[in-house]
């Protein structure tokens, strides 16, 4: 029995960057580690994570037979072979693949099974502040979706979207932690340039990003109006905004998303 209710055993195939982040987010936010079984790859990554979090490891996919929901976190190169191996035990389970590419149709076809979903989490799932887009196959019942949501809900927000929007949602929410990290680093560099210690500059930049995001989330105002609120006429903030625009800030962000989308 899980701490939050009546969930049963869940399985993971692949506990690398994203699989490991989801498992970490689950356990650190109260999901019972005794209800998580993981089939890892060849390296010591899964064992290292198990030593921190305490879930159970198995060496074969068929040992996930007693699970209700299976999450797949392997890379594209291993996906099809994993799906083929999963065929033998998949009946009655819900399968959620965290693949960056691919579609529900592809998952269904290779697995030869209908209750599959495609989800794209981002790395903040690790601290329970993730944003995960998900597309379910049409065979998922409302109860099935509730079950998946009750698990991934431990890691942050889960938003269902049609398959044609999953890719761009995955880019906007999934690639952008790296973009924000760059912004934080650059802001911190600027602080250091003007005399702050590196530690204080990072503290200030990260604290601002958390606080400004929280405000944007909780405020009735959209980000554009929030910006207007802090740009007094002739003031220093509007001068900074103008300098960002002079250097193509918004265009650079849009082009980064275009590039991540392969355009
Ligand atoms: N990273 C992200 O932010 C992110 C976000 C959303 C979606 N995704 C998608 O998630 C997928 C995985 O990406 P990732 O960044 O997590 O890659 P990753 O760090 O390379 O992790 C993949 C893991 O799969 C394991 N693995 C490989 N073959 C396996 C098998 N047969 N059985 C069990 N485990 C196996 C590997 O284990 P060993 O290394 O131990 O061999 C590795 O730890 C990709 O499709 C990616 O596009 C990633």
TrEMBL record:
Domain Pyrroline-5-carboxylate reductase dimerisation: 165-260
Parts of the chain that traverse the membrane: 7-27
Alphabetized Pfam families for the sequence: F420_oxidored, P5CR_dimer
Pathways involved: Amino-acid biosynthesis; L-proline biosynthesis; L-proline from L-glutamate 5-semialdehyde: step 1/1
PROSITE patterns on file: P5CR (PS00521)
Keyword list, A-Z: Amino-acid biosynthesis, Cytoplasm, Membrane, NADP, Oxidoreductase, Proline biosynthesis, Transmembrane, Transmembrane helix
Domain Pyrroline-5-carboxylate reductase catalytic N-terminal as annotated: residue spans: 10-97
Subcellular location(s) of the protein: Cytoplasm
Keyword Transport: no
Entry's Gene Ontology cellular component terms: cytoplasm
Main location: cytoplasm
Catalytic activity entry: L-proline + NADP(+) = (S)-1-pyrroline-5-carboxylate + NADPH + 2 H(+); L-proline + NAD(+) = (S)-1-pyrroline-5-carboxylate + NADH + 2 H(+)
EC number: 1.5.1.2
Enzyme class: oxidoreductase
GO BP term, example: L-proline biosynthetic process
Free-text function comment from the UniProt entry: Catalyzes the reduction of 1-pyrroline-5-carboxylate (PCA) to L-proline.
Family per similarity comment: Belongs to the pyrroline-5-carboxylate reductase family.
HAMAP family: P5C_reductase
Name of the protein in its database record: Pyrroline-5-carboxylate reductase
The species this protein was found in: Companilactobacillus tucceti DSM 20183
Gene: proC
């Amino acid at each position: 029995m899980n701490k939050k209710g009546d969930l049963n055993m869940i399985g993971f195939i692949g506990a690398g960057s994203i699989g490991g982040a989801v498992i970490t987010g689950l356990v650190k936010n109260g999901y019972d580690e005794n209800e998580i079984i993981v089939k890892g790859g060849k390296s010591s990554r899964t064992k290292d994570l198990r030593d921190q979090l305490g879930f159970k490891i198995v060496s074969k996919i068929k040992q996930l037979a007693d699970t209700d929901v299976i999450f797949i976190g392997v890379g594209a190169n291993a996906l099809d072979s994993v799906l083929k191996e999963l065929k033998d035990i998949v009946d009655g389970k819900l399968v959620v693949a965290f693949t960056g590419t691919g579609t529900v149709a592809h998952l269904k076809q290779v697995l030869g099974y209908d209750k599959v979903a495609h989800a794209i989490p981002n790395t903040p799932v690790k601290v329970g502040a993730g944003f995960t887009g998900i597309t379910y196959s049409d065979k998922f019942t409302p109860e099935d979706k509730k079950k998946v949501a009750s698990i991934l809900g431990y890691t942050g927000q889960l938003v269902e979207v049609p398959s044609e929007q999953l890719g761009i949602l995955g880019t906007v929410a999934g690639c952008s932690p790296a973009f924000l990290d760059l912004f934080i680093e650059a802001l911190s560099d600027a602080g250091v340039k003007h005399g702050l210690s590196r530690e204080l500059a990072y503290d200030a930049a990260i604290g601002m990003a958390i606080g400004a995001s929280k405000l944007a989330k909780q405020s009735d105002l959209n980000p554009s109006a929030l910006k207007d609120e802090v740009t007094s006429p002739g003031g220093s903030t509007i001068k900074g905004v103008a300098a960002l625009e002079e250097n193509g800030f918004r265009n650079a962000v849009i082009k980064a998303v275009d590039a991540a989308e392969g355009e």
